[in-house]
Amino acid sequence: MKTQAQKARQTLLASAALALTLGASGAWAQDKPAVHGDTPAAAYEPSMTTLAEINVELPGRKPGDPVMTQEEFNTGKEIYFQRCAGCHGVLRKGATGKPLTPDITREHGYDYLQSFITYGSPAGMPNWGTSGELTEDEVDLMARYVMLDPPAPPEFGMPEMKESWKVLVEPKDRPTQKMNDIDITNLMSVTLRDSGQIALIDGGTYEIRAVIDTGYAVHISRMSASGRYLFVIGRDAKVNMIDLWMETPATVAEIKVGSEARSIETSKFEGWEDKYAIAGAYWPPQYVIMDGETLEPLKIVSTRGNIYDEQTYHPEPRVASILASHYNPEFIVNVKETGKILMVDYTDLKNLKTTEIEAERFLHDGGLDSTHRYFMVAANARGKVAVVDTKEDKLTALIETGGQTPHPGRGANFVHPELGPVWATSHLGDDSVALIGTDPEGHPDQAWKLVQSFYALGGGSLFIKTHPNSHHLFVDAPLNPEAEVTGSVAVFDIDTMKAGEDPEMKVLPIVEWSGITEGQPRVVQPEFNKEGTEVWFSVWNAKDKESAIVVVDDKTLELKQVIKDPRLITPTGKFNVTNTMKDIY
Ligand code: DHE
């Protein structure tokens, strides 16, 4: 254990150095891997791939405009949306990175821009030229491109949504009872990132029961409250609604809700089960509430507006995570750049009521506490977690997690033997795990405070997980620079945890267990089966290499099964139907 701990410290130093070089200009700058290659870490950059494909005319030439052909402009736009828009914003007005509007870029001039793009800056700008990511010609092109007026990608309103909307099987033609022998309560929906598909894997037999085409680089899966319908959203903002009752589960409705999106959720409050679905978009910055049986778009709401503290206008605040409240008929919509959490009351879409909670900028991912009353979301570039009381619709606390760039996924809830109920997050920027007290009634001294922090495997963690029936806490580190770290997962025994003492860490060599020797696969996102007796890990390799899912016995921490299949291309997120439906994590 000592050597592991030492290794972990080394990795901490490596990743802390990395975070420092990348600077404090914001989440994506901090999240950037050292080399911007075609790696899973690079894939973590918000890349507006779909926007890059939209055709835009070269803006009319103004005096002083750099010379550029339409072809060069198209290439510049593609590079900009794929590499730069995540930090500098689609409209170049700045997000976590600095604004790059022509008034600023022209003031700097070509030589400055060319050198800046080539060498980067300690404040967070990557060295696109010297890293070899962009050729000299591309750097020259980008220096000229950013001096032109930024092209605004098209809006995506009701006409566009309606045009993309298809009901493939009408509700009246759908089965009235489950037509298959699958235990759908223990089904796993697995993202096959680079093949634009999901795999439905039986949690009991490990058999792939269906592979379903979805949008581009599908991001997450969420369940309807009844557990019948599965919703997935691609990065291209395409939503698929899948009926798990069909003989072979298949898409029954689909729609596009914008050009870039990451989140989808369904109504869960009593009396509103399966009534609505909601999706949030990065572009255009908006959310849309849809009919829960057909995906018919009903209400589109823009999130453009003022940043919560400065009260200055932001033209493109992206919608990050969305969760359904269990305490009120509301969706919890997290708006990244303005730092607002919107409690959207869905009881009357014509007279929509929204409670706008001031939280913190750069809201990203989060989940509920074990009682489902409190919602915890990471403002990751600010190193904080915002807590919202979903019963009272009020901000309860803003907590510094003590680490760099908290990234909880939905987090992990467990009862610490000495500190009581806690919610945990790991971090992208360092190897710490933060525990936050979540029991204001039973443990008022600990509630909404950072009660313990300890080290896991290394920086570059994305997800942490446990289950009410498990005594283990699992922490991944897929974006760590070291292959040994990305190929393993850290486990902590919850029962032996002591306040103020680092718990002992076990390391499971998941990639080694998968038997995959080619490529540099990364272990990502632990997910439990329904009973909480097994935990599944994705062994995420490059698209042209073998990937796998490794199943570990939660009691013995021994290998139980390796799921391999040529169809399992780049598996990443896994969503157990029951755990997802009931917010168990
Ligand atoms: Fe994710 C959740 C955004 C990259 C796997 N990711 C989320 C959520 C957001 C988000 C807003 C919360 C959704 C919700 O709860 O409603 N993710 C982004 C990005 O903007 C980012 C950084 C870059 C991008 O261009 O998309 C990004 N994400 C990734 C990956 O590279 C990951 C590791 C692999 C993949 O499949 O793309 C990845 N993100 C996930 C997963 C979840 C997720 C598995 C759901 C976790 C959960 O347990 O709920």
What does this structure look like?
There is one protein chain. This protein has 585 residues and is α+β, with helices and mostly antiparallel strands. The protein is 17% helix and 33% strand. It has twelve helices and 35 strands. The strands form nine sheets. The protein has a five-stranded antiparallel β-sheet. Strands 4-3-2-35 form a four-stranded antiparallel β-sheet. The chain has a four-stranded antiparallel β-sheet with strand order 9-10-11-12. β2 (187-192) and β3 form a beta hairpin. α5 (70-88) crosses α8 and α7 (110-119) crosses α8 (136-145). The radius of gyration is 23 Å and the shape is globular. Heme D binds at residues 43-47, 191, 193, 219-220, 235, 262-263, 320-322, 364-365, 409-410, 462, 524-525, 572-573.
Task: Put the structure in a nutshell.
With about 575 residues, the chain is of the alpha+beta class. About 15% of the residues lie in helices and about 35% in strands.
SSE order and pairing:
Layout: H1 2-22, H2 27-31, H3 40-43, H4 49-52, H5 70-88, H6 102-108, H7 110-119, H8 136-145, H9 158-164, E1 166-167, E2 187-192, E3 197-202, E4 208-213, E5 220-223, E6 229-233, E7 238-243, E8 250-256, E9 260-266, E10 276-283, E11 286-291, E12 297-302, E13 305-306, E14 313-314, E15 319-324, E16 330-335, E17 340-345, E18 353-358, E19 363-368, E20 374-379, E21 384-389, E22 394-400, E23 412-416, E24 420-425, E25 432-437, E26 450-455, E27 464-465, E28 472-475, H10 483-486, E29 489-493, E30 505-508, H11 510-514, E31 522-528, E32 534-540, E33 548-553, E34 559-563, E35 571-576, H12 577-581
Helix pairs in contact: 5-8, 7-8
The structure holds heme D.
